[in-house]
Amino acid sequence: MTTPKRALITGITGQDGSYLAEFLLQNGYEVGGMVRRTSSLNVERLASVLDKIKIVPGDLLDVASLVEAVKTFAPTEVYNLAAQSFVTTSWNQPEFTADVTALGVTRLLDAIRIVNPEIRFYQASSSEMFGKVREVPQSELTPFHPRSPYGVAKVYGHWITLNYRESFDMYTCSGILFNHESPRRGLEFVTRKISHQVARIKLGLAKELRLGNLDAKRDWGFAGDYVKAMWLMLNQDQPADDYVIATGETHSVREFCEVAFARAGLNYENYVVIDEEFFRPAEVDLLIGDPKKANDKLGWKPEVSFVDLVEMMVDADLEYCSSQI
Ligand code: NAP
Ligand code: F7E
Predict the structure, then answer these.
(1) Ligand 1 proximity of 38 Cβ (cutoff 6 Å)
(2) pTM score, two decimals?
(3) Mean pLDDT of 66-77
(4) Which candidate, 124, 167, 259, 321, has a CA 20 to 30 Å from the CA of 220?
(5) pLDDT tens digits, 99-130
(6) Which of 2, 14, 178, 160 is nearest to 84 (CA)?
(7) Helix axes 63-73, 104-115, angle to 10 degrees
(8) Residue identifier of the C-alpha nearest atom 38 of ligand 2
(9) How close is the Cα of 202 to the center of ligand 1, in Å?
């Protein structure tokens, strides 16, 4: 009998953490979820797996808690998904963002190095590192030019992950993931803000949707597809490497609105109001990833199309908002 693999997920209470936990459990893993102390436990997204995972206390701001988490759970793989992940907040809390999203990666890598450097490590890097893009589409070789304190923090996290691979011969991978969404996306991100408000308008609970830059373009995929790529990166026979994970298609916020409102039988032009409040000090205008390396080396491909993703989110929010009435 082989010993089951053990995965410790930081950020398990977030969108990606919940999908990754489900995926790893289905694949025979024992799963530990690192959770920071808050006044109320935020485990809504974990409803289907809560009784199957082990909650491990820990905070990326506190290295002693990370050493303890790695020591007590004794994982074979660590997925670092925890971050202050909302770009807008990173301008209001730049130092906090750097502490969690940048330095937090070093703290966790160091905890692993001290406790057991054989543990394989995944870092959640981001297409926001490309920012003011230097080439189209963006690949693993495209230079970075981040446009927010969040993007800058992720560049640090990316390079420290590579540095621990090169300095200590650890199996550390960085996944440069483009935007990925789902019905579990936080309400502050534009896709979920749209799908949720479309549902409320359809049900007569709201009259308008206030948004910022409708012309920004993103390469949007489905979070459930993207967590498989994280796992593939840590389960290769070849040496650790970094991969762009994307669909290779780009769509504007306006197009997202068009498809989302149409799903509910509405025309977005009658409801969307442009509001200066939602414009950013510096914008990332266009992101489109080149997932060729992940296709070739990991055999990874996205399965959910843009239209299917938007419709999945609107349908889920129609059901969710109806149940709240
Ligand atoms: P998310 O929903 O915002 O989840 C973030 C998670 O981080 C939450 O579980 C949160 O816990 C945890 N966290 C925050 N600060 C922490 C701290 N100090 N110590 C421990 N945990 C902490 O993010 P997501 O969309 O799932 O994304 C997962 C990761 O991928 C993030 O690192 C994000 O930056 C990165 N990323 C996301 C995308 C995307 O499109 N979704 C694309 C590229 C990269 P609480 O529940 O306690 O707040
Ligand atoms: O914005 C525009 C906004 O907040 C997308 C995070 O997961 O993906 C995410 O970062 C675009 C931007 O995501 C509103 O200006 C217009 O151009 O949904 P978002 P993001 O900033 O791309 C990356 C890959 C990550 O790593 C991050 O963690 O939409 N936009 N109007 C708006 N955005 C928001 N939030 N709200 C609006 O009203």
Answers:
(1) yes
(2) 0.98
(3) 98
(4) 321
(5) 999 999 999 999 999 999 999 999 999 999 99
(6) 14
(7) 40
(8) 211
(9) 30
